[in-house]
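Comment thread on ticket #2218

A.B. wrote:
> Attaching the input chain for the structure job we discussed in standup.
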Amino acid sequence: MLNHRILWALFLLFSVNYLNEAVAQTTSGLYGNITDTTGNSIAFVNISIPALNKGTVSDERGRYRISLPAGSYDVVFSLISYKTEKRFITLSSSENKELNIKFISEARALSEVSVIHQTERNQDITRISIREFELLPNPAGSLESLIKTSPGVFSQNELSSQYSVRGGNFDENLVYVNDIEIVRPFLIRSGQQEGLSFINPDLVGSIRFSAGGFEARYGDKMSSVLDVTYRNPQKAASSVSVSLMGGSVSAEGISKNKNLSLITGVRYKTTRLLLGSLDSKGEYEPNFTDWQMLLNYKITDRFTVGMLTNYARNAYTFIPQTRNTNFGTYANIYNLKVYYDGREDDLYNSAMGALTLQYQFNADLRMKLMANTYSTYEQEKFDISGEYLINELDAYAGSDTYGDSLLNLGVGGMLNHARNYLQAEIRSVAYSGNWQLNNHLLSWSVRYQYDHFKDRMREWDYIDSAGYSSPYSERNIVLNSFASAENTLSTNRFSAYMQDAVKWENASAAFTFNAGLRFFYWSLNGEALLSPRIRFSVKPYWSRDVVFYAASGIYNQPPLFREMRNAAGELNKNIKSQRSYHFLVGSDLMLTLWDRPFKYTCEAYYKYLENLIPYKIDNVRIRYTAQNNAKGYAAGLDMKLYGEFVPGVESWASLSLLSTKENINDDYYLNNNGERIEPGYYHRPTDQLFHFNLFFQDYLPNNPSLRASLNLVYGSGFYIAPPKSSRFDATYPLGNYRRVDLGLSKTIKLSFWPVVKSFWIGAEVFNLFDISNKASFMWIQTVSNQENIPNVFAVPNYLTSRRLNLKMTMKF
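C.D. wrote:
> Ran it. Output below, let me know if you need it in another format.
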């Protein structure tokens, strides 16, 4: 406990010392935001004052600040592929002036060409352009689908916004919106239930993503961080989008005195179009809506108040009727038919509110106070019965009875029941600061979080095969599985970080070094953790434009709630944080191909994992053992080529290789001879050896407003374990994931309606080649005494087939 007090004392001394020095400064300064004509933030803009031979660059959110003596100066703003902007300013003593710049793109071939940034490529987090999102054929409709095209990011479900990064699961990814950490739903078990993700693409100004080795200012998760910032409106604008899968409306504006700005959006989504292609037929009623608003008010030139609010209602109802699925191999084809009765009703309601107070002491020092509250109510209710039969089909293509049933392998019935409810309240308050001190950028934060969970779980399933319940009992009806629990949990969490990013150069190279330390304390088990993280990069002054970098750090992941609960619904309150040690090296090379700019990145990594909590994945549902009894590793190589494959529009290709395995401590099983077998390391559920993604854009040379975009994904399958098996090493590959989505779009100028700045229509062909991909397995039991006929069949739950979607967007 004494060590904790010493750490807090040093941290407070660090903050107060810097604050005193900063407030004592009396220099003048210039600060502001840099955006493009659509309001998107622009990072890495060079800001120079030629008379003083002094300058800086805008950060990843388009913000900049620079200290200047009193006087009059020309200020030059420049970035490759944008028109250089020049402003004349006059500063009095101790004056801090705000100057916002709107950059205009210098398009080479198309008016919407985006930019490969030539500077600041030594950042530990990659900036992703939002411009390609509208053109990305996107079944889920979420911004996360754009992230899935990045190297190291894996997903095998187009209905879900969840993704796996470098062998981690969905719960291991940090997501921030305007510095607010976002929580994913707790009870979701399939992609069709998921609804809208939190991020509203219509409001996004900048996107940053890191697949590992990120700095200490980002929180306590083991895999990745997605950092999204909503736009700061510079003028009045609005947009309307409609499609066969829903629609959205957004509006933004700013007051005449530039002190008040607001951006808001409403979305509606329905996935009936996609769900109608699944093997399970019935009445699908998915209705997903949300509303968000970001409001900023500048009380003074230095003091700003911001508020971000969100309300979401995701409702999913399914009344199943029949299912007809063929599966097996070319030599052995089976058919499952199910006749259903019953229904499923799921509801996921959430609300979030965040208040931000930001004070700009001068051009170099900024502090922020944030308070946030998040509330969610989730329910999962279903009573579904089914009568099924499994037949073997004639697999001989030349036979007159090809495809007909040859043999009945089993009949049975099942009844699935659930009444699961969860309420959660997560509240937090945080203080943070940034201070630019010469070539050092110092950052610090202190955060407190309160969690409250109330959980009621009751679910069971019953199987009857050929008149015998499974498991069989002569006297009683025995359920195949049963879980019932009620839990209430309240905890307090404290976290803090300090970090310094320093830049310097000599005659041969430019260098960047980032070092930081995170602290975490959890009241539930008294766990206190330190997480040091470092990163170093060098840009040699060679004729070839290349950056080399290396990073390492400790990434602890304290359990939130899901990791603490086992399959029976019991909570382990003595559970500890999972831990990952990151080691990575990489390079970033700018090159010219076909007289056009390209960027090639390559990153190799190794992660040692300890205190792991083993789990199984079924669709997007993760079931943990709630025990820290495993260790593991993840190693791989990520590569990406980004540039103008076609002049004027950007495309990219990414390739990832991965191996991730784990070993449960002291696990074993007995073979048929009664011998003890210790399985050792086995495939983790998210192990995926190979993953390739291509996003390609093209247009008609004589009509560049008519575009085509293609998204191709090929990945080896995840590993699935039967839900009732006690052996985590007994896994089966889910099968390769192969998918091609095609988008066609046309931008039309409405000269007769000048208020419309952009009118865009498009068509999307999802799963162009109609490939059957698997989301999970349905495990069907039968009673059979026939030789070579199994009593358990793994019936694939196939994902969506080919579908056509139509879209229209108008911007005002």
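A.B. wrote:
> Thanks. Noting for the ticket: The chain has two domains: 2-103, 126-811.
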